[in-house]
Amino acid sequence: MPLTALVTVVLRMYSLVWFLAGLGMFVSSYQSASNYSPHGGSWMVYLGPALEWAIAIALFFLSQPIARIVTPPPNPEVQLGGLTQHDLYCFAFTFLGLYFFLSSIGDTLNWLHYFLLVARDTQDFEPKRRDAFYTLSRPLITLVIGAATILFSSRLARKLIAFQRKSE
Question: What SS3 class is residue 124?
Fold first, then answer.
């Protein structure tokens, strides 16, 4: 497997991480904006997540040209012993899924407990309860995405390989 293919895999995995982090930033931005305005606040609050998504999408599509730039000119073959590109992508998706899942379990349980306590003490969707919900949503989204990435790693790998072959 050419070294540029390995670098492309790594860059695309980072782009997916940044895209998902942008999703978390969007939820946090919406929560912050809704605290100050019932209609979601100013559009300026969403520039951070939009920029992160734009960078993630650009990195995903530019990963092959970047890989050609950062690898040495004679593009050496890397011997992976019987590992296919599908195996490599499956490993990368499983690794990312485990990272997302395991890094968000503690926060999800903590904020779920807090949200349930606040929900028990309040009747309507008042600001304290709304804040607890949006604070819970970020680690919960990360936890669900991590679990889905683990469960669908083989399917995601096949789709990414098909996309890569189509773009070549």
Answer: coil
pTM, two decimals, is 0.56
Residue 66: both structure tokens together? 């970047």
- Half-sphere exposure (CA, 13 Å, Cβ side) for 66? 14
Residues 98 and 94: their CA atoms lie apart, in Å, by 6
Which residue's entry shows tokens 């919900």? 133
The residue with tokens 């999703």 is 23
Per-residue pLDDT of the chain (168 residues; tens, 9 = 90+): 677 787 888 888 888 888 887 887 787 777 666 666 655 556 677 787 888 899 889 989 998 898 888 777 765 666 667 778 888 888 888 888 888 888 888 888 888 888 787 777 766 667 677 777 777 888 888 889 989 988 998 899 899 889 888 877
CA-to-CA dists, residue 151 to 87, 94, 98, 101, angstroms:
15, 8, 10, 11
